[in-house]
Model the fold of this input.
Amino acid sequence: MFTLGIDAPAADSARLLLSGHLDDEAARQVLHAAADVVRCGCSRLVVDLDGLRSWDDDAAYAVVGCVGLSRWLPDGVGVVAVTASGRELARQAGVVVEPDIMAACPAC
Done:
């Protein structure tokens, strides 16, 4: 089962909290939510992968798609992946995890 949470840890930013199993349907939900963040005028998006326990290999495109939105956000997109599973998904998706994202956004 997949759960997508959205919060605003800092002014003008949004965080997508992904948990459970990321499959193709869930990946589409993530991309729609990320697009909504751009449309709402946020300047930064944080994608938190640490709640994911498993994923379909072809669903990793959702993470790539979120990172691709960085050109539309003044402060870009950051990926949080502290857990082993979160880091593995980031690696499979070929995205860079910001090692100091927690320092850069204390509310994240």
